[in-house]
Amino acid sequence: MSNLLSVKDLQVTFVTPDRTIHAVNGVSFDVKRGETLGILGESGSGKSVTLRSILKLHPAHRTKWSGSITLEGDEILTMGGRDLANLRGNRVSMIFQEPATAFDPVFTIGQQISETVRRHTGKSDADAMKRAKDLLEMVRIPSPAQRLKAYPHEMSGGMRQRAMIALALSCNPSLLLADEPTTALDATVQIQVLLLIRELQRELDLGVIFVTHDIGVAVEVSDRIGVMYAGKLVELAGVEQMVDTPKHPYSRGLLASTVHDGMRGQRLEAIPGAPPDLGEVPTACSFAPRCKFVEPKCLSAPPPLAPVGDSHLVRCVVAAA
Amino acid sequence: MDTIIRKPGGTPDRGGPAQPLLLATGLRKHFPIPGGILGRATKVVRAVDDLTLSVAKGETLGVVGESGCGKSTVARLLIRLIKPDLGSVVLDGDPVDEPHGITVNELRRQVQMVFQDSYASLNPRLTIVETIAFAPKAHGLPAADAKERSRDLLAKVGLEPNTFAERYPHELSGGQRQRVNIARALALRPRLVILDEAVSALDKSVEAQVLNMLVDLKSELDLTYLFISHDLNVVQYLSDRVMVMYLGKIVEIGKVEAIYGNPQHPYTRALLSARPSMDPRKRTQEAPIQGDPPNPIDPPSGCRFRTRCPFAEDVCAQIEPPLADAGEQAVACHMRVAGSGHSKAARA
Hints:
Chain A has about 325 residues and is of the alpha/beta class. Chain A has twelve helices and twelve strands.
């Protein structure tokens, strides 16, 4: 199957008068249609920056991109004007962590969804509103006809996130980007939204990139999981391989330090230290200062992302040896 | 006696090990919402309603629940950051803010709190050694002694005093700042520490470091914890007993093994099975309950969970279920009360 999205050696640098931040330092991955790629990482790992680069959402005057991002063969990083506007929403769309701030508070949900439909498809007001109602139905919002007239503040957090998914899917994109969409939701609501995303992904044969810091959430939705650290993918594998046999010391530490059932009374295996400063381009393995398996060769050059099995990649010279 | 030896300068134990360290009875807090004519309150948020709980000496009581269930309000009521409308708090036998009891000041010397936002809860204009020494100085400790205590505490929470003492909050990472907040909470040698989502904002690898530290500090300093979190796994890891709240009420409370191993209330069961699976072969197939928690402004009559409960019957709308003993734990559900009128309840 051909790739829907292909990211090759993506580097993202933010330049401000005071300092330069190397947020993403060479990330490569592919996403196929009908596949969910989970990107797991802690704050500052570059996971959201990578995701937003796919829509070129970073301010152009402060951001330097290099590498390539292609969607069905079209290069996104050089796109601008109408092509970029057409890409956003029509071909790739995004759902965010905080649905309360992603909607405009002074328009109803129906107005906001139908506006997007009109803008992208040129449908009439009435047709666009009908499409909005169908979309609310699709995301399992009860009594959708009434909900069209609701303002964002009149809906609960879970309903707003469903409405945001409806908005994102309004123009039949082939790729859905999800940036921690369930982090702000309550536990009983989070699982509902995760299941909804999983169902819609199957129904509509979407490619999905799901960014999260929560391993449990990534396991629930992903076919493959990529782990990011200090602006690089350090490991990329199928979800079962990642959970059963993580290879990179950071992935292993992350799994071991996540509290779950049956760990009561045990001491947690914490990773010592903190992530590195992103002010400089790494010249060695970025995880080496926190790694208990560090060897001299780890410090001589940045390790490559090397295969360690069937479609299992790891960026560690010790694990790959 | 050995409490005194282990905690020099701390308040000695008074009532013995069987007396609860903290006992709160009939706590109620309703927040009025101004909105009527001339800003008069027309509605109230029923944040906490007639809640009774006790914390035993040396235990960790975990509190779980979704947003709006009142878990943070309970914490603020216990430490008197807000005044309850009704109810009393008794600390080791001494009623708080009552004629023959202890003052709120004395309460706060013995009960301290750590908040979720590590940055907002530190004064940006004080170095961290000053921040930690602030309360002991305010309570009468000479400045030099307070500073020494502050440096000792920094070492205790894993921050090398020579490196960190003179830094400002913005020069620290989130995990380091939360360590400072914990050190500050310990500066008055409290007996009870309330941790309100204290590890929720931290990254997983840092969270594990702080959880290990909390376990160590508890045994070293003979502390009691009230641990509030929305993360059920972390609560299970740390707690001896667990209290589950829903819309301002306790729905279930008991030993951690009972709550997680044999949950009785339909809400507790739903909450536990809503946890994402860590096993890709056993993914969640169906959401345990639908919908969002209702607004606490106008909670449902009778049992507050009935609008989302798959077992709700007429009796649930009419009568509020009492928190009743159900073996290992106490549960507020008509299905567990013999003769309640619910079809699943035992006959009286």
